[in-house]
């Protein structure tokens, strides 16, 4: 779990992002398994969006693996009235942004990538400082990942 101080830093980053990009209607940082870390999502159930993000992330990771496109970086979904964009944020978190249909998608990506990088640094640093559980059976060694990409999942 991420300590409260880092959660506040993540929330501050989400709020700065929404201030920089007025057509964002929500921003959420979550763990890759669907737990909300911080959110600024007025009128939207954050826990449900985090769970759906984890499900979409699972499919996206499998798609990048199956097509040889490397580790997951981002996902963009366009609905009838706007966009949902999800970005890898370090090794164990994701940033999901909700945007109005009129948004400049290039700006959405630019700002989303910057914020996801900052959030990933905060979360990864907090997890590195957290007490580690007692060693158990050795986990398989994963190949090195591209910066900003989530690890491949084994199937």
Report the major sheet. Answer: 5 strands, antiparallel
Gyration radius, to the nearest Å?
A: 15 Å
Shape: globular
Helix content: 40-55%
Topology order in helix (H) and strand (E) letters: HEEHEEEH
- SS strand fraction: 15-25%
Average pLDDT confidence is 89
Low-confidence stretches: none
Number of strands: 5
How is this fold's topology laid out?
Layout: H1 4-20, E1 24-31, E2 36-40, H2 46-66, E3 74-79, E4 82-89, E5 93-100, H3 105-129
Antiparallel strand pairs: 1-2, 1-5, 3-4, 4-5
Describe this structure in words.
By secondary structure, the chain is an alpha+beta fold. Helices cover 41% and strands 23% of the residues. The protein has 3 helices and 5 strands, in the order αββαβββα. The chain has a 5-stranded antiparallel beta sheet with strand order 2-1-5-4-3. α1 packs antiparallel against α3. The mean pLDDT is 89.
Key attributes of the depicted protein:
single chain; 155 residues; alpha+beta; 5-stranded antiparallel β-sheet
Could you give a short description of this structure?
This protein is α+β, with helices and mostly antiparallel strands and 155 residues long. It is built from three helices and five strands.
């Amino acid at each position: 779990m991420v300590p409260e101080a880092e959660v506040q830093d993540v929330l501050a980053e989400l709020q700065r992002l929404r201030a920089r990009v007025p057509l964002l209607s929500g921003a959420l940082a979550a763990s890759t398994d669907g737990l909300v870390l911080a959110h600024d999502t007025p009128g939207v159930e954050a826990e449900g969006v985090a769970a759906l993000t984890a499900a979409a992330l699972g499919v996206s990771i499998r798609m990048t693996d199956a097509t040889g496109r490397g580790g997951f970086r981002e996902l963009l979904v366009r609905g009838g009235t706007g966009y949902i964009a999800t970005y890898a944020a370090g090794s164990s978190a994701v940033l999901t942004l909700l945007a109005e249909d009129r948004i400049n998608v290039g700006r959405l990506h630019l700002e989303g990538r910057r914020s996801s990088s900052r959030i990933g640094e905060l979360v990864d640093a907090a997890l590195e400082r957290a007490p580690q559980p007692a060693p158990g059976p050795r986990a398989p060694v994963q190949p090195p990942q591209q910066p900003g990409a989530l690890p491949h999942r084994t199937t």
